[in-house]
Amino acid sequence: MRQTLTALAVAVAASVALxxxxxxxKNDAAxxxxxxxxxxxxxxxxxxxxxxxxxxxxxxxxxxxLPYTVKWKSFTSGPPLLEALNAGAIDVGGVGNxxxxxxxxxxxRISVVSGATMGAEGDTIVVPKGSPITSVADLKGKKVAVAxxxxxxxxxxxxxxxxxxSYQDIEVKALQPADALAAFTNKHVDAxxxxxxxxxxxxxxxxxxILVDGSGLVNGMTFQAANPDALQDKATSAALEDYLKRLxxxxxxxxxxxxxWAEVWAKETGLAPDVTRRxxxxxxxxxTPIDSxxxxxxxxxxxxxxxxxxxxxxxxxxxxxxGKYNSSVPAT
Length: 332
What we know:
Elements: H1 2-19, E1 43-48, H2 53-60, E2 69-74, H3 78-86, E3 92-96, H4 99-105, E4 111-117, E5 124-128, E6 143-146, H5 151-162, E7 171-174, H6 177-185, E8 191-194, H7 198-205, E9 208-213, E10 221-226, H8 228-232, H9 234-254, H10 258-269, H11 273-281, E11 286-288, H12 292-307
Helix pairs in contact: 2-9, 2-10, 3-4, 7-11, 10-11
């Protein structure tokens, strides 16, 4: 597994070398003669995951009056999204708490620009309902599916460590969510480390039982990460600032409009409404500024990966986080 994860970091690093600055920022025409920004001429390219930012913004109504154009691109999980971000294929995208660390270890060109805690109840390890596995310790020697470099990757590592196990004690199957769901349903793996809405989907559609969740063990953060060139481009940065404010507002809205959010989430993803409703009920969103408490938590995670041999070298996460857009966090 160490070789596999190191290879993941190397692959992203290769992407850096091949693309360089990568993206030719296309919003120069949005700068007026007086230096102000005409947002109507800006296109913001946003990376998204199933049930992510697009669904939430649509549910809250914050897509209705956008002064700029958003071009959406969908990804299966955080690691491939950040590869696209590094290559300049997107301007910004939403990921969990772990993908930025793998991207940073590979010296990718990313900058985390906003965050929110969702709680960690939906970050789980699931097993079949009839499985004899009743504790994390019982995973020793078992096949466990997980998306490499995802938030589930850290939860799995942390849960194993808490139980006195390491990656060497299990047989890790590196699978993206769709493939992992098929493997789990067909009993090709003994357990699956995953996040919502896949946790809820596994429970309701794949006869899964939650073995353990991340409450009290993982930080439950989600992030928006941007290509540094987008931050330096005046027009793109202006659209990004507005986008992050809308997203934070929508996150707060979701806490008090669970039925509406679950309904749109189901429609946008094709998931069953009872799946999205269960996932919604497991989370409470709280937009959070990028500050030392966030970077310290992420640094602890990064150091844990390095200590376990899953990332090659220690690095400073502060180099990949910025508080430039902290004004997007609503006052509480």
